[in-house]
Design brief:
Length: 417
């Protein structure tokens, strides 16, 4: 039996690893064939201990041309060159794939088996796995998926998967802080005047939220105010603050119709997408990002500014407050009494610290008149110098809020443009 299915090793091949039984080389071939080439020979789950299974695999291998056989021998040698941990991981992946393939209805299985190339086979597998996942969702999701055209389905599934992962991560965060946020107990994050400052911050954040996001946040806020259930409110504030950064200043345009007249006129005259008044761009990714931001401040203005920069357009006026004298009173007070004095003290130091302070002062001065650069720099410097801006940043030490964020949303992990 072993003479029938064991393939002679080349002199340069690494020695077989122990523990692979009577058919060390072909057992690995079977694993690799299963994952990398779907064929009619794979009638059931991989079982390297079944002589009948190995005979079928060997018979199939002999039907391949010499070039393909040599390619798979090389693949096997590369596999043996991996460390045992990687070998074990890839083996599990291949076994899972083989078992999944064997369970497919015959029509779907043939779609995989007969795919003309590896890339097309991967696409078929992706489609089938996506459909299987959608079938596990509640009916409204399945009905929405069925209504979408082919191009819209993948982004929607990615969105749903991200939401599912986020909920899972948030549940883990909630479990780890349940004792600190027991109902009826005011946690440190809302102690003293911090609760009022959080609510002011939420008022600014509201301008940048969709209706769905605002309703969810408002419900969480009501639960905190009426029943002392603070955990959900704190987590929602942290999540949405990361997703939709606020910028100090008055609320500006959220849609084309609310843009300054000179900006609307300029866009209509200078960009083909805006030639028809009130019609938003469509087509490329930049235009789609602008459409998605419609109805939110400052997201809409930020996306429009970025769109114009990429298209070589220079807006006649800034879309938001970008000078100190235009900032809200509390921000002006913060600049005059807290941030600027601290940066000046840093600039007065000798050595590297002084250079950094001088550079920060210069950057703050040069950013005036530029939006969103100036308000964004104020926030960045406040964070750098460990200060908070009442109503415009979350109150208290940043680590108090960091622990409430799902890992993927922690600052520095996901950078929102």
């Amino acid at each position: 039996m072993s003479g029938m299915i064991w393939h002679p090793r080349s002199p340069s091949s690494p020695p077989p690893r122990p523990g692979w039984g009577r058919y060390p080389l072909f057992t690995l071939y079977s694993l690799l064939f299963t994952a990398l080439v779907a064929t009619a020979a794979h009638e059931g789950p991989l079982n390297s201990d079944d002589p009948a299974y190995l005979r079928r695999q060997y018979a199939w291998f002999q039907t391949l041309d010499a070039g393909r056989q040599q390619q798979l021998r090389k693949l096997h040698e590369d596999f043996l060159g991996l460390d045992e941990k990687d070998q074990a991981r890839l083996t599990r992946v291949m076994q899972s794939y083989n078992a999944w393939l064997a369970r497919l209805p015959e029509d779907d299985r043939q779609r995989v088996v007969t795919a003309p190339s590896a890339a097309e086979r991967l696409e078929v597998v992706r489609q089938l796995r996506e459909w299987e996942w959608v079938e596990t969702l509640p009916r409204p999701y399945k009905e929405e998926y069925a209504r979408l055209d082919a191009d819209a389905r993948r982004p929607k599934v990615q969105e749903w998967r991200a939401e599912e992962a986020e909920r899972r991560e948030e549940w883990m965060v909630a479990k780890s802080h349940w004792q600190e946020f027991q109902p009826g107990k005011v946690p440190a994050i809302f102690d003293g005047d911090r609760k009022e400052l959080v609510d002011v911050f939420v008022g600014h954040l509201k301008e940048n939220l969709s209706d769905t996001e605002w309703n969810e946040l408002r419900d969480a806020q009501a639960a905190a105010n009426e029943f002392g259930i603070y955990l959900r409110y704190a987590m929602e504030v942290a999540r949405l603050a990361d997703r939709h950064p606020v910028l100090p200043g008055k609320v500006g345009p959220k849609a084309f119709d609310s843009l300054p007249e000179e900006v609307k006129t300029y866009l209509i005259r200078n960009d083909a997408h805006f030639r028809k008044k009130g019609v938003f761009p469509s087509g490329d990714d930049d235009a789609k990002a602008l459409q998605r931001a419609k109805g939110r401040w400052p997201d809409f203005a930020v996306e429009l500014t970025r769109y114009c920069q990429k298209k070589g357009l220079k807006l006649p006026v800034a879309l938001g407050d970008c000078r100190k004298e235009d900032m809200p009173p509390e921000v002006q007070e913060f600049l005059n009494k807290t941030l600027e004095p601290q940066v000046k003290r840093e600039a007065a130091k000798s050595g590297e610290a002084g250079k950094v302070g001088k550079a920060d002062l210069q950057a703050l001065e040069e950013a005036q008149g530029k939006w969103p650069d100036y308000p964004r720099l104020i926030l960045d410097l406040a964070k750098k110098y460990k200060q908070s801006i009442p109503g415009w940043t979350l109150p208290g030490p940043p680590q108090m809020w960091d622990k409430l964020r799902a890992a993927k949303n922690r600052p520095g992990v996901i950078v929102r443009p």
